[in-house]
Structures are given as C-alpha cells and as structure tokens.
Design goal:
Blueprint lengths: L14 E2 L5 E3 L2 E2 H8 L3 E5 H16 L5 E6 L6 H9 L3 E4 L2 H9 L7 E3 L6 H10 L3 E4 L2 H10 L7 E7 L21 E2 H13 L4 E6 L10 H21 L5 E3 L17 H19 L5 E4 L3 H4 L3 E13 L3 E6 L8 H5 L6 E2 L9 E6 L8 E8 L7 E4 L20 E6 L2 E6 L4 H5 L8
C-alpha cells in the first residue's frame, strides 16, 4: 500500500490501494461510500486511540499528576464515549445533552467535568444528582444557584473559571480567554468569587480553570495564562486560604489542516505547560496542583474524514472551476463560519497528479457554501468520490438540517471492518418533532 504526500493530513492508517483508492483503517473509502452512501463521515479507531495515549503519555510523563478530559463539543456520541472510557480519559461536557450521552454510554460520572457559561438550574440539579466529578463555575449567577441547590450531605467539588485576559492569536470567534469574553470571571472580580466559594457551606472549591481559545498554534499564550492564574492563586492563598488542588488549563491544541501549516506536536504543548506550572508554583510558593487538560480537536480531528460524491462541474473560463458535491455547509459549516481551510483528494484516483485547480462547492443555497477553495486535483467527473481530511472535530456537532437536508451517517473503521455508529437521518426523523395542530 502506497502513501501519497497529502495523506499526512489523513488518519494514521491512511494509504493507497493498488487500485489507487484511499484506504482508511484497512477499508477502501470508495467501497465505504458505495455501502453507506455519501456524505459519509469515517473515523479511524487507531488514530483515536493513539491520540488518547499520546496525550496521557506526553502530559503524564513529566512529573506532574495530570488528568486528561476530552472536550465533547468537538464530537461525541455513545460509541466514542465508550472508547474514551476504555482509554482512561474523562469528559468535558457543556450541556444536559452531552451529559446524557455520557450517562447513556455508562461513562463514570466521577470522570466528568461540567462546563458552560449559562447552565440552567435543571442542568445543575442533574449534575448534582448524578454526582459529576467537577462543576466548573463560570459566573456569580451560577455560583449562587449551585450553592442553593447543593443539599446537606453532598458537597459538589467546583473549579472557578477565570478569564486571564490573554490573547491566544487565533480567530476572534475562537478566543475565549481575552478580557472581552462571555466566559469566566474577570480577574477584577475573581477574588470575590473565591471568597464566596470558600464560604459556601455545601460547595468545595478545589481549583481554578481557564481556557484561552481554540486552534492555538503557539505555546507562549499558555505560559502567560499560567503565570497570571498562578500568581492570582498565590494571592488568594495568602488572603483567603485557597488551597489549589487542581489547575485546569483548557485545550485549544492545534492540528494541521493544510500541508503548508504544521501544528506543534503534543510534546511541545506538554513541555511548555508542565514546565510553566512547575516553575511558577515554585516561584510563588505553591504546591504543584493536579493538572487538567481538555483536548478535543487534537484527539478527534485527524481521525475523521468526510466523503462526498461529486456532481455538477461548472467552468467559468479564466475564473474558476467549481466541483459541486452532495454535502457542504449543512454537515461542515467551518469554512463558512470561520473561513477554515481544508485540503482534498479524489478518493478513487489518489495517485493521479493534480492537474486542475478547482473549488469544491456544497449543494446548499448559499454563495458561502464552499468547502475547499483552490485545490489541485486530477480531472473530476460526476460520480468521483471526494475525501476531505481533518473533519473529525466541530463538523458533525455543528451540522444542521439546512434546506431540509439529512444529517450524514458515521462509521468507525478498524482492521478492515466498518462499524456504523450513527445511521443517516431519514425524512421521518426530519418531521418527527413537527406539530400538526391547526391555527
């Protein structure tokens, strides 16, 4: 099985068959498209498990006790939750829905961290009743609600989310630790939050948390945020007796979406974060806390590949050639929302040279429905299978039924076998929630 240069962006098991077809997890992608239809999202089990192991190894092997929790917002369902349980990770959930998926998968609740900037009273009651491991409190409204909900005999363990006012140098929609953000306690009011949390009878403040953003290609913003938060922790220890048992540093670790923009290896993030925590604690007179990290995209992103079938080809002489596919912004809104860039391959002719510069367009009624702009592919005809890598994160969770489209099927592949983990939606699914009452 051969390996083409662009396959560096695909799952770790990706290769090319003697017929020139893209192989993932030992499965022929063209055969997968024929069996399950397109659009189809294919996840490679080997890549998923190896990424989990890499984060445990790199962060856990540097002398600082570390808990790795997976950020479910990247993508979660019962099959993935079961795999993450087997790999020893925890879960970062942000809604009753994500918490419900974890529960349905039999995930240990003590390994669940509940985040979110506007948790409802019902969600907090559910979290308390299930005994989730940590509730990450985002604001004074939530702090007051949770203190009132916590019953005698059960004391929820909480972290306070801070906004350290650090610019992570990413897309403005992905920056969550700057001063002008909806997330977390600003440092100006964080001392009050610490004092209230410590004095609450039925809450146990075990640590602090921050998350500065997503798709961060630099390690320096993590170092700066750690400095700010640990200096604050030292001040709170002196003033209020805060014992920092845990420090959550969020996630945001980048992956490589295009051949010309590599991301730092996990080891680089681990070295920068762990070394900074240890050094700053030593300088501030703090005992090193348990480190909590929240990778999502960096575990699941490269593992996922989207398969589409090409349809209409439109040539605008001297301007552009459009290749339209049977999916688009309804199953992957990232290019339209963030201006995200992807690469692509013709899955049934991987080794043929890219002689045509084309733009891959979706089928939905928006001019912004473009999946990949200006990519070099061999001549594409209707019926060819287009494979787009790095689609494991934030595509499926943000999918919609725009134009009354049906959400795609999802399979996991391993050792030449494909397992369906979500069937394609049907028209019956689409109309099931409709009310039929008259005016």
């Amino acid at each position: 099985m051969q390996r083409a240069p662009r396959l560096i962006l695909f799952p770790l098991t990706a290769g090319v068959s003697t017929e020139g077809h893209l192989i993932i997890g030992g499965c022929d992608s063209v055969e997968l498209a024929a069996e399950f239809g397109t659009p189809l999202y294919v996840f490679d089990e080997v890549t998923l498990r190896q990424k989990c192991a890499e984060f445990r190894r790199e962060f856990g092997g540097r002398g600082l006790e570390t808990t790795v929790i997976y950020a479910c917002k990247a993508f979660i369902n019962r099959a993935l939750a079961a795999m993450l349980k087997e790999e020893g990770l925890g879960l970062d959930v942000v809604s009753a829905g994500e918490l419900g998926i974890a529960r349905a998968a039999g995930f240990p609740m003590e390994r669940v961290y509940f985040h979110g900037n506007n948790k409802s009273a019902e969600e907090l009651r559910l979290a308390v009743s299930l005994g989730v491991g940590r509730i990450v409190v985002d604001n004074f409204h939530e702090l007051g609600m949770l203190a009132g909900l916590a019953e005698e005999g059960y004391t929820p363990s909480i972290l306070l989310r801070l906004s350290p006012a650090v610019d992570p140098h990413t897309h403005k929609y992905m920056a969550t630790g700057i001063i002008d953000t909806k997330f977390g306690f600003p440092l100006a009011s964080a001392e009050k939050a610490v004092a209230e949390a410590i004095s609450a009878r039925h809450l146990k403040l075990v640590g602090l948390h921050f998350h500065i953003g997503s798709l961060i290609f630099e390690t320096e913003p993590y170092r700066e945020a750690i400095r700010v938060v640990l200096d604050f922790a030292a001040e709170m220890k002196a003033k209020h007796g805060l014992e920092l048992g845990e420090l959550g540093v969020g996630g945001g670790f980048a992956i490589q979406y295009t051949v010309d923009l590599p991301a730092p290896p996990v080891a680089a993030y681990a070295a920068a974060i762990v070394d900074s925590v240890v050094a700053r604690c030593r300088g501030a007179g703090l005992a090193p806390p348990r480190l909590v990290i929240e990778p999502g995209r960096a575990i699941v992103g490269q593992a996922g590949v989207a398969l589409y079938t090409a349809g209409a080809v439109k040539d605008i002489p001297g301007v552009r050639r459009y290749i339209s596919v049977d999916g688009g912004m309804a199953d992957n809104i990232r290019p339209a929302l963030y201006g995200s860039k992807y690469e692509a391959l013709v899955a049934n002719r991987v080794l043929e040279p890219g002689s045509d510069r084309v733009t891959i367009a979706g089928r939905f009624c928006e001019s912004g429905d473009i999946l990949v702009r200006d990519v070099d592919l061999p001549p594409v005809s209707a019926g060819d299978i287009i494979a787009i890598p790095d689609c494991g994160a934030y595509c499926i969770p943000m999918a919609s039924n725009y134009n009354a489209s049906l959400k795609p099927a999802i399979v996991i592949v391993s050792d030449g076998k494909a397992r369906l983990i979500r069937r394609r939606e049907t028209l019956e699914d689409l109309v099931r929630s409709d009310a039929t009452g008259g005016a």
